[in-house]
């Protein structure tokens, strides 16, 4: 059904992980309109599927994604880019996904590839991962949040360094800087990501989505508003069956059985 991505699921039927693999391997998963359309459709379909609790977005060993497809945009005029909104119309799709999306990154995550990884909820990196915003070498700047999400993740000094020099950051530096949450050997990448995703699937869906929404709010609001937002969500979770189950299970020293409501 898709030509530029592969989709599959893992885990027990009741709570599965939706896995999306970018699949333009020869082009190092360069991101074009078709791929972004297909990625958006697949994410939305998994998000709407009640049996899916978490998603993983990954690429090939050599490249998560080496950026937007340079061949597709090389001849663009300003009007082409502006009037069609270039490829941005598909790019922010991932932000509307309410269930967690983990980026499992091996190899190059450059330009739009780095931006796509940063739009996911957290990044688990293989030890061969390389992150960068090399757009400056092409006479442009990042166009899908690289100048905005990267400084929020790694601070101004490193973000400026990367955006202005176009240099790459390896996995060790990326973890030290806060861009990625974990680094694992390449052959353990999918096991690690799947382990995290299955753990998330085992928690109550409502509290998982509320936690994602609340953490994301930290990047959109001031502290007082963010704390108030968190408090209202916290309070509202006392209306869920999963809160009753989770606390009862703890008090009775048993494993909770969440109903995701
Ligand atoms: N676009 C198109 N094709 C690409 C891209 C790309 N971004 N990256 C690699 N390829 C292709 C190469 O052209 C090559 O094709 P072919 O075999 O037909 O010649 C194939 O993939 C393999 O690449 P290399 O031979 O170059 O492989 P190397 O191992 O020698 O080098 C690199 C790997 C270092 C990753 C190198 O390919 C490279 O520098 N790629 C370009 C990286 C880059 O500049 N990325 C930023 C692109 S601009 C961008 O992402 C803007 C984002 C805007 C977001 C959207 C806003 C709306």
UniProtKB/TrEMBL annotation:
Could possibly oxidize fatty acids using specific components. GO terms for molecular function: enoyl-CoA hydratase activity. It catalyses: a 4-saturated-(3S)-3-hydroxyacyl-CoA = a (3E)-enoyl-CoA + H2O; a (3S)-3-hydroxyacyl-CoA = a (2E)-enoyl-CoA + H2O. It comes from Polaromonas vacuolata. InterPro entries: ClpP/crotonase-like_dom_sf, Enoyl-CoA_hyd/isom_CS, Enoyl-CoA_hydra/iso, Enoyl-CoA_hydra_C. One of its GO terms (biological process) is fatty acid beta-oxidation. Its EC number is 4.2.1.17. The gene is echA8_2. CDD domains: crotonase-like. This is enoyl-CoA hydratase. Belongs to the enoyl-CoA hydratase/isomerase family. Keywords: Fatty acid metabolism, Lipid metabolism, Lyase. The keyword Acyltransferase does not apply. PROSITE patterns: ENOYL_COA_HYDRATASE (PS00166). It comes from the Bacteria. It holds the Pfam family ECH_1.
């Amino acid at each position: 059904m898709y030509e530029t991505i592969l989709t599959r699921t893992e885990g027990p039927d009741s709570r599965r992980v939706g896995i999306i693999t970018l699949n333009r391997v020869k082009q190092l998963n360069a991101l074009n309109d078709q791929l972004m359309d297909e990625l958006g459709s697949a994410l939305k379909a998994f998000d709407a599927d009640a049996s899916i609790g978490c998603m993983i977005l990954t690429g090939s060993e050599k490249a998560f994604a080496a950026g937007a497809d340079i061949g597709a945009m090389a001849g663009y005029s300003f009007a082409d880019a502006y009037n069609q909104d270039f490829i941005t119309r598909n790019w922010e799709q991932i932000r509307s996904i309410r269930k967690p999306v983990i980026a499992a990154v091996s190899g190059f995550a450059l330009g739009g590839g780095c931006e796509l990884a940063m739009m996911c909820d957290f990044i688990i990196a293989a030890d061969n991962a390389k992150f960068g915003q090399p757009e400056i070498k092409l006479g442009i700047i990042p166009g899908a949040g690289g100048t905005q999400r990267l400084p929020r993740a790694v601070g101004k000094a490193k973000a400026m360094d990367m955006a202005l020099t176009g240099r790459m950051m390896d996995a060790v530096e990326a973890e030290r800087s806060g861009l990625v949450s974990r680094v694992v050997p390449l052959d353990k990448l999918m096991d690690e990501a799947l382990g995290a995703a299955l753990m998330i699937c085992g928690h109550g869906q409502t509290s998982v989505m509320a936690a994602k929404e609340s953490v994301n709010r930290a990047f959109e609001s001031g502290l007082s508003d963010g704390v108030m937002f968190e408090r209202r969500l916290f309070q509202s979770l006392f209306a869920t069956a999963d809160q009753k189950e989770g606390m009862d299970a703890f008090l009775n020293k048993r494993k909770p059985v969440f109903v995701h409501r």
